[in-house]
Amino acid sequence: MPTIAKVWIEEDCITCDACQDILPEVFEVTDDTSQIKADVREDGSFDRNTGLSAIKNEFRSEYSELIEEAADACPVEIIKFEYEGGAAEEAAEEVAPAAEVAAVPAAVADVGADAGVLAGVLSGDRSLAIFFGSQTGNAAGLAEKTAKYAVAYGLEPSVIDMDGYDQSKFASHKRILIITSTWGEGEMPDNAEDLWNATSASNPSLAGVHYSVCAIGDSSYDEFCKAGEDWDEKFAALGATRILAMKMCDVDFDEPWTQWVNEVLPRIACVDSTGVFHEDLVEAMAAYGAGDEDDGADEGDFSPPSILHATISLTMRIFRYDPIMAQSGYDTIAVALPGHATIEDALVAIKREADGSLTFRSGNVAGLNPLTGVKANGRIVPADTTRICDLVGDGDTLTVEPLPGYEVLKDLMVSYDRFDAARTNSKPWLVADPRQGERLASGAPMGVMDSADATSLHALADVGSLQLVNAMSDTYDVDDVYSGPGIALQRWVRSQDPRSGAPHVKKMFDLMQRKGGVWDEADISSIHRHGIDGSQAADSLYAARARLLAEFKFSGKSGRLVKGYSRSVKMSGNVNETTLYRSVLGPLGLGSNIMNGVSLRMLLGFTRNGGPIMRGFQGMLVPPAGIGKIPDMFNSKVANHHQVVAIFNELDRRF
Amino acid sequence: MVKYSYYPGNVARQSSMEVEDTIQPLCNSLGIELIEIIGYNSDGGNIIKQGNKGLQLALNARNLALAEINGHGIITACASAQGILHESLETFQNDPIALADANRVLEKTTGLTLDGSEMSTSHLLHVLVDEIGLDKVEAAVVNPLDMDIACYYGPHMQRKGACGGDDPWNPNYMEKLITALGGRPVEYKTKTSSVGNPSLLSLGDSVMKMTARVLNDAKRAGAQVLVSACTQSHSNLDTYQGKAGRVANKDTNIPVVNFTEIVAFALGHFTDRFAQLKTRAMLIGS
Q: Which of A377, A363, A361, A362 lies closest to A416, judged by CA?
């Protein structure tokens, strides 16, 4: 390994300490920047070494490897060095989540390729069968990855375990890739042995098949990659067409496998739906897969939308909380990510590459996990399915914080105990009356509903995560008694469920109406703005409130507010706050406003910045005022006021 | 001269006359002509909606139809009003059944019908930045603000399409405007959080805590003054700030002014009120 002669720090250090942690003998991070220590430098200075003083000879061989490691780890790529002899080396990639994706550039580049000349091969059957023979899982993993990249070439890959496969079906495929390991002394892996034996015994014709083999093994064995060789020769012997020579991979199989994938996919993708290989199109297909040509799709052709986005460089501010030290703050780290990476991808990468102590809830491969929610630049979103490119652009900052309203356990991980307790206490699940299984006189079963009702019911709370809906509310984290809009949705759904028994419906209504229920939400618009789920939840909350007002006859302050407000608008066309305060607060409430200083603030002019003080006095002196900013005792009616009255009479005569 | 149909909202001609006082001269200074919507009614404040969604929609359909007669899009200085108007218009533009329902009622009760396809609604803030331009605003400044100012947007209009070209989640139009007016914008965390205004009368402590959270955040960030783009929320932030501070046990003492006031002051209107504001800011401090 060449030794490093000079190392220096460029501007914009974020003082993350990564270099100092790796090599404290060379790097020291001050308040502003990392610096190169005096002891290791020829000039004996302590600064960023932008003057390019050399490293003392006695340290070069000892520290070279660690300097490279520190440069690799630097998230903002400002550690630069020069090898002996003058060859400069850029700092390595910054924290690079999805490193394995970057290893196959052809498959991750933006799709925007020329489908015009390829229209013929890209149409019709595009299936690709990828068989794996695997003893320890390596070949299976490579098969999965190969399938992932095959999509970029317009292929429809299937990954097939050799175990249990019927050899007679080989001939039904036009495109086959085989990835297999070798076990023991040149033997097939366990999952491939039966298929090998059956194929060898029956020797089916594979005349219409194009194929290639990637064999992985260990070159220290005499029969290196023997299983792969066997399949390769067998397929050729059975009449299949080898589309690319077999690739033999040693224990470090990533690199040769990558080469094989980059070569074989453009070739096998040029096998058309009739089984004809178009070698003249391989170059165009490679460009198509890499997405570096113009979009020349024929008019009228279906072009699948791209889900791949260019790399985004951003600064992530991540909330950290240490429950043992009871300390909190934010970590800042510069990262570069594929735009289609999710927040969770970023967090996983940071945890893996920079700080293993970072704690957050992880999703799963099956899709949205309702508990992975975070607050990202103010939005309440599931971390496992929210793409970075949907939140920020290149050069932006992404602040990731725990969900509000829940107790933070550590870093971004919150406890959902509050939600679970509210749910358990209210039991918003189905309680039928009579119990399911009984029948009506007509013979129809009780406790079931038709599909239209089921769809309607489902639509009332069709949100990805009720826990996240709770966190969307700006009220939830200031009101400990409030069970939250997510719980309210569950109660609302159950109250509308035709299978619910009457006592249970009544219980749901009572829970929604009382303290902690839907009226505890101070501002539904704070929920409404949180995307589709927030909008859906808000609509249901409004519907629930309307139902409760009818059920409980506008009782309570909230009921009086809606009724008073509506009547005020009906009477004049506009709100009269005087009558509204009086009808909602009552005499005691009005009195308390005088006592608690609200009225005083108005009188002293705080509310009008020196506006005509007589307006304030008017509010104070003319009964029933004294309640905030009250300019008029009675509204004048708007022009054509009768139209407003008519609208009310047409739509709601309760007001 | 840019022309808009002017919707004052629910309180600008009631308890918040200071908005009405200031919006007219500031618009004159910047070449915006406000055309009265004759006979406009309340937008329902998202309170009527709690009892009857269709009723609130119909009331807004009437306002939109009246503005349509004027031939100009609607402008308002209240974030809450802009949120409700925009949501109503969006419903009518995207849901022909809702539009037909509203028109059936409108035609029967008023003789009006709403087309809505060419209609728009805007908050004054977005008109100043997107249409008038910060350069023109800056050129019209007579009294540079020269204060540390926190901007409050609230949640109501912070939705895609309702806030012009601003970012709904991390808005900065008001900060840009304050800079153009010679002030120093102060960043703080809760500038789009709700202060619970729709429940000011019906909920007690939680609304006060929400109000105190915003005021305290702004104050701790070093603001001398808080400017509210929501006339409705201004009531919480200003009139109730003492009570909010006591309930939440937080320092909430900070002058709060409406968006139209601060712009009008900077453009040279109501210099006596501006002087009083500066005195209050100086006395209260940050």
A: A361
What are the DSSP calls for B111-161, one per residue?
S-----TT--EEEHHHIIIIII-HHHHHHT-SS---SEEEEE--STT-STT
Distance in angstroms (rounded) separating the CA atoms of residues A282 and B119: 53
Q: pLDDT tens-digit profile of B192-208?
A: 999 999 999 899 899 99
Query: For the domain that residue B271 is a member of, what is the CATH number?
Result: 3.40.50.11810
Task: Please state which CATH class domain A311-413 belongs to.
Answer: alpha beta
CA atoms of A199 and A182, how far apart (whole Å): 17
Range of the domain at B241: 142-284
Indicate the pLDDT class of residue A159, thresholds 50, 70 and 90: confident
Q: Does B242 touch chain A (CB under 8 A)?
A: yes
Name the residue among B155, B210, B255 with its Cβ closest to that of A529.
B155
Q: Which residues of A touch B194 (CB under 8 A)?
A: 474-475, 522-523, 525-526
Confirm or reject contact between B198 and chain A (CB < 8 A): yes
ipTM: 0.96
Of B42, B83, B170, the CB nearest to A378: B170
**Chain A residues inside the 8 Å CB shell of B109:** 643, 646-647, 650
Q: Which pLDDT tens digit goes with each residue over A328-374?
A: 999 999 988 887 889 999 999 898 888 999 999 988 655 568 899 99
Q: How many CA atoms lie within 13 A of A66 on its CB side?
A: 15
User: Would you say residue B134 lies in a domain?
Assistant: no
Q: Which CATH class is domain A115-290?
A: alpha beta
Work out the minimum CA distance from B232 to partner chain A, whole angstroms.
12
pTM of the model: 0.68
- Together in a domain, B72 and B168: no
Give the architecture-level CATH label for domain A4-89. 2-Layer Sandwich (3.30)
